[in-house]
Amino acid sequence: MSNTYLDQFPAEAKVVRAAFYSSFFALAIGGLFGIVQTLHRTDVYRFMDSADYYTVLTAHGVLLAITFTIFFLVGVFTWAVTTSLDRGVENLRFTWAWYGLMVIGTAMAAIPIFAGFTDSIDMSASVLFTFYAPLQGHPLFYLGLVLFVVGTWLAGVDWFRSWRAWKAEHPDERIPLPTFMVLTTTIMWYIATLGVAAAILLFLLPWSLGLIESVNPLLTRTLFWFFGHPVVYFWLMPTYMMWYVMLPKFSGGKLFSDPLARVVFVLFLILSVPTGIHHQYLDPGIAEGFKFIAMTNTMFLLLPSLLTAFTVVASMEHGARQRGGTGYFGWLKALPWRDPVFTGMALAGLMFAAAGFSGMVNAGMNINYLVHNTFWVVGHFHLTVGTAVALTFMAVTYWFLPQITGKALWSRPVALVQVVLWFVGMTFMSNAMHRAGLLGVPRRTAEPQYEGVTFEAAVGSVGELNAQIALGGVILTISLVLFFANVIATGFNGRSDELPSNGYADALSGPEDAPLVLDNLKLWTAIAIVLVIFAYTFPLLSIVQRGGLFGPEVITFPVSLESLAPIAAALEYGGLATVDGVASAVTGALEPGRIAIAEVVR
Amino acid sequence: MNVHTYEKLWLIAAMVLIVGFIATITYGSVGLGIAMVGDQQETVEPTELADDERFGEPRVEQIGDDEYEVYVVAQTFSFQPDPIEVPENSQVTFHVTARDVIHSFSLAGTNVNTMVIPGEVAEMTVEFDDPEVYGVVCNEYCGPDHHNMEGQVHVVPEDEFDLTEVSVDAPDEVDAGESATVDVTVENRMLDGLETTAELEIGGETSVEEVALEGGEATEVTFTVDPETLEADDSDVEWAVTVDDHEERGTVTVIDAGDEDGGDDGGETDE
Amino acid sequence: MSQSIDESTQTTEIGHDEYDPVGTLALIGLYFLILVALWIFVYFVEFLGNDPTVVTGSALLLAGVGHR
Ligand code: HEM
Ligand SMILES: [Cu+2]
Ligand SMILES: [Cu+2]
Hints:
The complex is a heterotrimer of chains A (602), B (271) and C (68).
Chain A lengths: L4 H4 L1 H32 L8 H36 L6 H24 L23 H31 L7 H32 L8 H12 L1 H16 L1 H5 L3 E3 H14 L16 H13 L1 H21 L17 H24 L4 H4 L3 H31 L6 H27 L23 H31 L14 E3 L11 H27 L13 H17 L4 H20 L1
Parallel strand pairs in A: 1-2
Helix pairs in contact in A: 2-3, 2-4, 2-15, 2-17, 3-4, 3-5, 3-6, 3-15, 4-5, 5-6, 6-7, 6-8, 6-10, 6-18, 7-18, 8-15, 10-12, 10-18, 11-20, 13-15, 13-16, 15-16, 15-17, 16-17, 18-19, 19-20
Chain B lengths: L4 H27 L27 E6 L2 E9 L2 E3 L3 E4 L2 E9 L4 E5 L5 E4 L5 E7 L3 E6 L12 E7 L7 E6 L3 E3 L4 E9 L5 E9 L2 E9 L4 E8 L10 E8 L2 E10 L12 E3 L1
Parallel strand pairs in B: 2-5, 4-10, 12-18
Antiparallel strand pairs in B: 1-2, 2-3, 5-8, 6-7, 6-9, 9-10, 11-13, 11-19, 13-16, 14-15, 14-17, 17-18
Chain C lengths: L21 H26 L6 E2 L13
The complex binds protoporphyrin IX containing FE (HEM) and copper (II) ion (CU) (2 copies).
Membrane topology (chain A): Multi-pass membrane protein
Keywords (chain A): Electron transport, Heme, Iron, Membrane, Metal-binding, Respiratory chain, Transmembrane, Transmembrane helix, Transport
Protein name (chain A): B(O/a)3-type cytochrome-c oxidase subunit 1
């Protein structure tokens, strides 16, 4: 008899399965749109009107960046909590309820998006996944997004309930690492989604319903990015979880350090949100000083990712050495490269290392003039969410599928080809996108072929870049087809009794080495909130003071920006300095210098 | 908590990277003077741009010897003015706002790039050294025709650059045997004086008037055209007014006596 | 069948104290060098070489760098 997740938690396995299948459904449609827009943009093959391109792009963005990723992660998180606490959900009906709410929300948002393809229905939401006002979508679109997010909130409640119930029975135990990761991520998500909830409920939804006349475009945009940056960590943190708790196991080793994994997740919790303004470096109406503060926070947010790189590679190396690997680089050969789960995740990690670089460029304030809204950015996030996250999710699916269906995977060789093809396709597509961006080729454009604008390449040509992008897109599409073939064919397999057991990796340095304070979620939540307040109060007040709450009519707030900005900066770093652990010493030492710089720059 | 020595090393290296990045950016800002688009400018009412002091008339304005200000309005799906013409070796400050939705104003292949948000004004100061044509794109999705939103910035040689406005007031029709008056208004929007000529070519004859203007001044030059000059084989007589490289063209219809609707001056062209 | 780690391929058991991730240090050191080199290239060649650039209104600070 095997001891899969399905054997342990048959009812929960069904929820996880439903979440995964929803996620794959979004991936299928989103991916189809991906290749359509790739061929259209590059002028390789156009079959639709260019105006419809933006409807396709909206669907691609929403379905992949929101639906695919989040449905998958609620599945993973439910698995992680139940497995690591070794207890089922508290109330199965409640679990199905939040899943249902997410499905309804998705459907509601999808209706107006897809109605954009036909003129016969007077409804559309071709506003892209950023829905910047004054572009206005159908109210159903906003309402759907709200329901979807509320669904995720309730999912969070579910995980917290499990943890509290567990804690009552195990008062003196450390929070198991997977659950710790779920809880910190959830708290981060609660804070982050306040921004988009405010944008939609206070402004965009009433506005689309005609209840209010106008909105302040800079305000709703800023609220969007309050959410829009941390949402990338909502995708990334489950990915990191897989790298921390699963990859070592697939490598044949142990997690190098449980305490550092906790430090990393705490850093994400407190630093993810007060950085969103880095998406607005080129926005008029936001003072340079605020942009500088956002940049500093963003740069420090590199730390948890850089730490992750070390811990994860060291865990893989541990596995390799246990498998007999030797030398400085020779150990790499001892890794299980024939295993699609391992290989997919390792390649995803490698791509993330590359993405790290373009992300560092994106984080830089003035260099943003070079890359902002160019194709560079699209290249960047196809490495992050489009590969680090998506490829990890696809690879780990090959492990999860047997766990949640009780059926053996249809074909491991096909799976291996699939993950390698994704890596190759994305290498072509994303590299060429980065290069095109450096020439100034804009993103989000159906026909980047202009009458009076030329993009000059020092090396190669725009034609060559387009060819690589189209080739990459085709390879990616083939990879997707193989993925779905495997998922579907596995569904037709019979039940198997020889499946691996459910479980995750042990740690070399376990939770007993982690300071207790790391598990003090209240403390970290408080610090996160304080940092957000410091980072956002003054920019938001300033935006409202300038442009008005509901639009360009100015409402006067008794606040003088000039005098408050330095105080904000000071408080901000005061707050940062209280962060326990690794970052504090250096941050503290740099503090006066950075405040001074922020002053000068203003 | 025991952290492995190697990981401590990496931690230090990571901090060095982070601090190095911040230092580079700071060097760009402080050392090289690269400024961010910020909140320097007052907000505007997007619905009342037509009456706005800054944006009522999208234009290029000279404010110092080699200093210019450009007021640009982005709207679905074009930029005004287009093309924008400025001289080489100049320091140009762009002020860009949006009439409707969010756009961008981005000179392709340069570091001149900003979001354009209704209600807000993006201010960017740029130095243009050599003559060149820059393509301008909107890189923020703004509606179904977003991909057709483009413009140009022409940086022209100094001797080809002026801010001269020429408008001509000429009659559409004159009665045969009468003389016609053509009024040419020349405005010099540069700070320096302008010495040039206004030339009228009509019916194969050319007359030239000297124009001398202080900076910011406008003047009117009047040409009187003899009846003989208007005696063409055709009743439509073509004319052209040239001031430097500005040219205005039109036709005057000569009406035989007895024809009813006698012509008064109605034709007015503006450049 | 989809057993990911074949336990039999594990030849040794390496504990916490006997494990030094030298390979990781080597790889990540390499990564560090690549990052520094790429950063310098993208900032100083791609970005600063992509003039004109937005400068502070009054001061002509960029002269010298801005000129090719
Ligand atoms: C078959 C694979 C894929 C292809 C060929 C593809 C292609 C593209 C292209 C060409 C664009 C740029 C469109 C433009 O800016 O004009 C784009 C945008 C985007 N893609 Fe993909 N993509 C793929 C997979 C993914 C995946 C897996 C994700 C995320 C999980 C993703 C997320 C996004 C997002 C968020 C955008 C931006 C949408 C926007 O600007 O509003 N893509 N994709
Ligand atoms: Cu971000
Ligand atoms: Cu546009």
